[in-house]
Write a structure and sequence with these properties.
Strand order of the largest sheet: 2-1-3-4-5
Helix content: 25-40%
Structural class: alpha/beta
Order of helices and strands: HEEHHEHEEH
Radius of gyration: 14 Å
Length: about 160
């Protein structure tokens, strides 16, 4: 059974940022990476980082879009804690990336497609929202979900 995201608050800004994340996902897909993109926005609304997956290019299993973007945002803010920050990502984060969001003290996550096989936020696990860790963040899921899902479907269909 597919779980629904915890928070349904949505704005035009969320849609614009997800569109930017989709651009990053398409760029990643064009170079053979799984097409996932992420955008990090500060509390002031300024974009701190935007990137796509880069596991293959970096030969790095931690090269997930949200992880690379959080690293860049941390450098931009000169802080490993990112209070007030919103992460936009085209696919529900895995457990590794969700745990990073807890550690970085992310305030909000907005994602597109649900990952029923490996989702760390609403599908398989509820990291950041189950009350088991020392930090939680709000979640808005399903933003441009069909477009995000379709991009992933086409990528994997073309690889078969």
């Amino acid at each position: 059974m597919q779980q629904q995201p915890r928070d349904l608050e949505l704005s035009a800004h969320d849609v614009r940022m997800m569109e930017r994340a989709l651009v990053q996902a398409r760029i990643a897909g064009a170079v053979g990476e799984v097409p996932v993109g992420a955008v990090i926005v500060g509390a002031d609304g300024i974009i701190l980082a935007e990137t796509g997956n880069n596991c293959v290019g970096r030969s790095d299993p931690t090269g997930h879009a949200e992880m690379v973007a959080i690293r860049a945002a941390s450098k931009a803010m000169s802080n490993y804690r990112l209070p007030g920050v919103t992460v936009y990502v085209t696919l529900e984060p895995c457990a590794m990336c969700a745990a990073l969001m807890v550690h970085a003290r992310i305030s909000r996550l907005v994602f597109g497609a649900i990952d029923i096989k490996g989702g760390g936020v609403v599908s398989k696990y509820q990291i950041g929202g189950d009350g088991l860790l020392n930090h939680s963040f709000t979640v808005t899921g399903g933003v441009l979900a069909e477009e995000c899902s379709q991009l992933l479907r086409h990528f994997f269909q073309n690889r078969r």
